[in-house]
Amino acid sequence: MALDFMSLLGSMVQGSMSSSASSSRMSNAGNSVQDLLASLMGAGQSVKNTVGGDNLAAGGIGALLGALMGGSRSTTANTLGGGMMGLLGMMAYKALKNSMSGQAESQSYAQQHYTQPSPQQQNSDAEIILTAMIDAAKADGQVDSDELGRIMNTMKSSGIGQEGMNYVISKLQGPMETAKIVSAVRGRPDLAAQVYSASLMAVTVDTEAERRYLDKLAKSMGLSQSVVNNIESLTNGDLQC
Question: Is the pLDDT of residue 26 over 50?
Answer without folding.
Answer: no
